[in-house]
């Protein structure tokens, strides 16, 4: 075997595998070779060695398994391109914030307002908070896009390496659209025309303090930006496919499994969404919508095609 050629049946016949009192199965393994063993040199094994029904040359030889290990991509193409697109849009928001109000055009407005456009269901998941007003003027906002893109890279690469680029992209976009749908539905159910009328009356009368107090409670008219809903769906997908993967969080001194971490995040959004005193500016129901969409989509894929899910 050192010369890289095929093994001969005479050599293998000395060590047959006995599968019963009547039959003995001989397994002939060989390394890959471009030169086949001539059929004329095959040694026919004596009885009671069992021969398969087909006595052709191929029945005497079994090729070795060509197992090939593929190293997981640390930065798969869809995750990489999504991060690039989000960063480029964020830079464009910084550049064109005051001249063209780009953030306002990309944000998702409630369906009960005149500013709502159908295309915002898609564009809002590629825009993030770019500028905030402080006592010193306007400052760029980094944390929103940073944490979203970091979570997309951390959990998205796990799914894309398993599913492939096409399925992961479909999953990501569907989760983002599902997050927008749930967010718009909740805003529509919470919409209070009387509060809106009181806000405009306070603003027209010059009572800025009252107008600010009313507007602080009007979450149902605020626009939404960010990939958080789609990323939350990716987070849930990673937790369903890799539930026992342990994560080390910055503010948690011990490792925590992914299945418990996603439950903590869902509980946090449930508390923030249903807490009447929560006005943090976080679209909690968009997060929950993305998580629910990801969960349903994986359950459907798992039910219809179990082999291609994992």
What can you see in these coordinates?
- The protein is mainly alpha-helical.
- The chain has two domains: 1-68, no CATH class; 77-309, Up-down Bundle (Rhomboid-like fold).
- The protein has 13 helices and eight strands.
- Residues 1-65 have low confidence and may be disordered.
Q: Layout of SSEs?
A:
Blueprint: H1 9-12, E1 17-18, E2 24-25, E3 29-30, E4 62-63, H2 77-95, H3 97-100, H4 102-106, H5 120-123, E5 131-134, E6 137-140, H6 143-163, H7 165-190, H8 193-204, H9 208-216, H10 228-241, E7 246-247, E8 256-257, H11 258-274, H12 284-304, H13 306-309
Parallel strand pairs: 3-4
Antiparallel strand pairs: 1-2, 5-6, 7-8
Brief rundown of the structure:
The chain is mainly alpha-helical.
Determine the N-to-C terminus distance: 38 Å
Residue share in helix: 40-55%
Major sheet: size, sense and barrel closure? Answer: 2 strands, antiparallel
CATH domain fold name of the largest domain: Rhomboid-like fold
């Amino acid at each position: 075997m050192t010369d890289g050629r095929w093994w001969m049946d005479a050599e293998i016949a000395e060590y047959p595998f006995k599968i019963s009192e009547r039959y003995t199965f001989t397994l002939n393994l060989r390394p890959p070779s471009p030169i086949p063993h001539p059929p004329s040199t095959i040694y026919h094994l004596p009885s009671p060695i069992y021969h398969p029904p087909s006595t052709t040359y191929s029945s005497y030889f079994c090729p070795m398994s060509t197992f090939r290990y593929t190293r997981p991509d640390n930065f798969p193409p869809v995750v990489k391109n999504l991060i690039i697109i989000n960063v480029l849009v964020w830079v464009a928001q910084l550049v064109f914030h005051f001249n063209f109000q780009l953030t306002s055009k990309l944000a998702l407005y409630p369906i009960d307002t005149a500013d709502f456009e159908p295309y915002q269901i898609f564009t809002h998941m590629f825009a993030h908070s770019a500028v905030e007003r402080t006592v010193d003027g306007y400052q760029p906002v980094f944390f929103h896009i940073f944490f979203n893109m970091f979570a997309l890279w951390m959990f998205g690469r796990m799914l894309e390496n398993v599913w492939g680029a096409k399925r992961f992209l479909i999953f990501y976009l569907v989760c983002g659209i599902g997050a927008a749908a749930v967010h718009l539905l909740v805003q529509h159910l919470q919409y209070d025309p009387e509060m809106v009328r009181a806000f405009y009356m306070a603003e027209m009368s010059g009572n800025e303090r009252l107008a600010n107090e009313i507007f602080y409670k009007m979450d149902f008219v605020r626009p939404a930006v960010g990939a958080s809903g789609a990323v939350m769906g990716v987070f849930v997908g990673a937790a369903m496919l890799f539930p026992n993967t342990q994560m080390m969080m910055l503010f948690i001194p011990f490792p925590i499994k992914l299945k418990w971490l996603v439950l903590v995040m869902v509980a946090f959004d449930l508390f923030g969404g249903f807490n009447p005193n929560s006005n943090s500016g976080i679209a909690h129901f968009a997060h929950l919508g993305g998580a629910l969409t990801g969960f349903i989509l994986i359950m459907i894929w798992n039910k219809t095609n179990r082999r291609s899910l994992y």
